[in-house]
Structure formats: C-alpha cells, structure tokens
Write a structure and sequence with these properties.
The protein has three helices and no strands. By secondary structure, it is mainly alpha-helical.
Length: about 70
C-alpha cells in the first residue's frame, strides 16, 4: 500500500467506524424484532463476529481474484 493510500484510508477512518457501527446497529435491531427477549449486548457481539467473518470472506475473494503476486 502506498503512502497516499494509507493517508487516504486514515482520512476516512472515523467515517468507516461510523459506517460499521451503523451496520452493527442495523442487524442488532433486526435481531431485536425477531427475538423479543434479545440481549442487545450479546447481539452486538454476535453481529460484530459475523461482520468479521464477512470481511474475511471478502478479503479471501479479493485475494483469489488478484491471483498470485510476482
């Protein structure tokens, strides 16, 4: 990653944090609707773990699509 890319990502860090928090909230609310006795704290942890898995899947797909590095 170039210095310019690192700078650009750093610039958007807080916005990315807000976006991910919004995703956690979105899916926690869905769990609240589906599970009336839902524990919000536990649900947040489960959603965060699911998002980590999704990010890992996407990273693996991107790595496979990029092919071997020379």
């Amino acid at each position: 990653m170039s210095d310019i890319q690192k700078t650009e990502l750093a610039r958007y860090h807080n916005e990315m944090v807000d976006d991910v928090k919004s995703l956690v909230e979105k899916y926690r609310r869905i769990m609240d609707w589906d599970i009336p006795e839902n524990d919000s704290g536990r649900a947040n942890s489960l959603v965060i773990e699911a998002l980590k898995e999704v990010i890992a899947d996407i990273a693996q797909e991107e790595s496979a699509a990029a092919g071997p590095r020379s």
